[in-house]
Amino acid sequence: MIPVKQAAEEFLGHKRIAVTGVSRSPKDHGANVVYKRLRDRGYTVFAINPQTDQVEGDPCYPELKAVPGGVEAVVIGTSPGHAEETMRDCVDLGIDRVWMHRGPGAGSVSEEATTFGRAHGVTVIDGGCPCMFGPTADFGHKVMHAFGVGHMPKQV
To answer: What is any Pfam family matched here (predicted)?
Structure first.
């Protein structure tokens, strides 16, 4: 186990990141917020949603293995019921950094996905949001982190 701050820094040290569950009707959808923040902060980010080919004005891919050149890390922004399948895909593709997003609601965290990923050498951040740390942080997300919104683990 390592401190979540270290895991977050290592995760955000990667520049090719996929975000699953990005919605074609975004409003304030958590995965879309993360996707746009990563994109706006200079990351090469890939939207994953099998129901559309465009999100936030960018190309969208149906699955992780369809991303040209692959990715280094994945933010899971789907329902928890889809997280284990995504984690299995990450293991199959050799992706060893995964963040299961969780804001004020239930989020994307799946105990089964966490257990599977860690058993296969994946550093899994099971809660919170990448927008709470480092170069992607903003004041609102820092406040949420300080008050424990998103159930951020202390170690992963």
So the answer is: CoA_binding_2
The mean predicted confidence, pLDDT, of the chain is 92
Q: Is residue 154 part of a domain?
A: no
State the DSSP code for 19: E
Q: Give the DSSP H or E segment for 81.
A: helix 80-93
For residue 153, is it within any domain?
Answer: no
- Quick: pLDDT tens for 1-11: 899 999 999 99
Across the range 85-103, mean pLDDT stands at: 96
Lowest mean pLDDT among 22-36, 81-95, 137-151: 137-151
Strands of 16-20's sheet in order across: 54-55, 58-61, 44-48, 16-20, 73-76, 97-100, 123-126
CATH number, domain of 135, equals 3.40.50.720
Contact partners, residue 67, CB within 8 Å, separation at least 6:
18, 46, 48, 61
- pLDDT number for residue 26: 67
Helix (H, G, I), strand (E, B) or coil at 112: helix
